[in-house]
């Protein structure tokens, strides 16, 4: 039976979610399902969610609604409550359940790349939705975290929150301009610096850091940001946000459908997206 799914955001035209979800539906024999991108502004969100509640089986939320949508929902999964952000919503029996698949998507992408960064010293740049999801995963891995953010208070609040969840976590907050000179094994960018208006810019200059071996940029378009280019030139292992994007989508479908998406289907969709991003 045909079912409706979608993604709401502002802006939304750049979103790769429709391509990914349609491919995943096709690969699991559900080509009849519809997945639509809906351009919904902040002021329209409450009314839009009510319409979706009655007509859609599930939907994703993206920038800037991941936190604003929470009061409009009936229930949160433990993963969404932990991050304080929702990227996936399931509708059923008139109830909306909010979930978050960004964190596991972040970690599954690391595993696919064969990176074992458990226990590493990590510089996490950013303290927004994606950074929050990544920070919880890194804390679970026993990493030592330095969170650098343009707004220091945002990083400090995230560190405080993480320490309440993980009492043994070693974490510190620094202002973005203060991370030069530090020693880190891994740098993770969870800001938009490197994409769109910020294309060609660095969120942090790797030349000013010591010991960096891994550079993970959550940006997926462009596929090679200036940070990844610099990391590669310095001999670091680099990873972009495309695998995370595909995994978070596959986990969203698993949440909606209640059954696992086979790993080969996920890898096939990732290969297609990589091909698309390389050839424009
Ligand atoms: P948010 O808006 O929640 O957070 C943005 C973060 O970037 C904040 O820490 C913000 O700092 C910082 N920032 C924004 N503009 C600037 C700037 N000009 N200079 C310095 N810092 C800045 O966004 P998300 O967390 O949802 O997304 C962040 C990035 O992660 C985006 O590039 C997005 O594409 C990517 N992403 C990738 C995913 C994937 O699956 N690969 C999934 C989700 C996001 P401040 O607190 O000071 O405002």
Explain what you see.
The protein is 38% helix and 20% strand. With 280 residues, it is an alpha/beta fold. The protein folds into two domains: 4-100 and 243-279, 3-Layer(aba) Sandwich (Rossmann fold), CATH 3.40.50; 104-240, NAD(P)-binding Rossmann-like Domain (Rossmann fold, 3-Layer(aba) Sandwich). A six-stranded mixed β-sheet has the order 2-1-3-5-6-4, with helices on both faces. The protein has a six-stranded parallel β-sheet with strand order 9-8-7-10-11-12, with helices on both faces. Strand 1 (4-9), helix 1 and strand 2 form a beta-alpha-beta unit. The radius of gyration is 18 Å and the shape is globular. The site of NADPH dihydro-nicotinamide-adenine-dinucleotide phosphate has 25 residues, from helix 4, helix 5 and helix 8.
Which architecture name of the largest domain does CATH use? 3-Layer(aba) Sandwich
Rg computed from alpha carbons, rounded to a whole number of angstroms = 18 Å
Unreliable runs: none
Q: What is the fold named in CATH at topology level of the largest domain?
A: Rossmann fold
Tags for this model:
280 residues; alpha/beta; Rossmann fold; six-stranded mixed beta sheet; six-stranded parallel beta sheet; 12 strands; globular; binds NADPH dihydro-nicotinamide-adenine-dinucleotide phosphate
In short:
The protein has 280 residues and is an alpha/beta fold. The chain has nine helices and twelve strands.
Please render the helix and strand layout as text.
Layout: E1 4-9, H1 17-27, E2 34-39, H2 45-55, E3 58-61, E4 75-76, H3 78-83, E5 88-92, E6 95-99, H4 102-113, E7 121-125, H5 129-140, E8 144-149, H6 152-165, E9 171-175, E10 186-189, E11 214-217, H7 226-233, E12 237-239, H8 242-257, H9 263-278
Parallel strand pairs: 1-2, 1-3, 4-6, 7-8, 7-10, 8-9, 10-11, 11-12
Antiparallel strand pairs: 3-5, 5-6
The chain binds NADPH dihydro-nicotinamide-adenine-dinucleotide phosphate.
The site of NADPH dihydro-nicotinamide-adenine-dinucleotide phosphate has 25 residues, from α4, α5 and α8.
């Amino acid at each position: 039976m045909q079912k409706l799914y979608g993604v709401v955001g502002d802006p939304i035209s750049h979103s790769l979610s429709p391509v990914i979800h349609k491919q995943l539906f096709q690969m699991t024999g559900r080509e009849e399902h519809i997945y639509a991108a809906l351009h919904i502004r902040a002021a329209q969100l409450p009314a839009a969610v009510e319409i979706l509640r009655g007509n859609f089986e599930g939907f994703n939320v993206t920038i800037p609604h991941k936190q604003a949508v929470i009061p409009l929902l009936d229930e949160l999964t433990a993963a969404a409550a932990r991050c304080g952000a929702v990227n996936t919503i399931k509708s059923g029996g008139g109830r909306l359940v909010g979930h978050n698949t960004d964190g596991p998507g972040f970690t599954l992408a690391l595993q696919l790349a064969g990176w074992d960064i458990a226990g590493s010293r990590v510089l996490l740049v950013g303290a927004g939705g994606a950074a929050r999801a990544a920070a919880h995963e890194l804390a679970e891995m026993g990493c030592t975290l330095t969170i650098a953010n343009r707004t220091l208070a945002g990083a400090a609040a995230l560190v405080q929150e993480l320490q309440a969840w993980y009492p043994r976590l070693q974490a510190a907050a620094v202002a973005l301009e203060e991370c030069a000179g530090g020693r880190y094994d891994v740098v993770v960018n969870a800001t938009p610096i490197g994409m769109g208006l910020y294309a060609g810019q660095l969120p942090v200059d790797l030349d000013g850091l010591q010991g960096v071996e891994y550079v993970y940029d959550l940006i997926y378009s462009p596929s090679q940001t200036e940070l990844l280019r610099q990391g590669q030139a310095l001999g670091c292992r680099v990873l972009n946000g495309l695998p995370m994007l595909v995994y978070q989508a596959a986990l969203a479908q698993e949440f909606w459908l209640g059954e696992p998406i086979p790993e080969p289907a996920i890898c096939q969709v990732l290969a297609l997206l990589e091909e698309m991003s390389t050839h424009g």
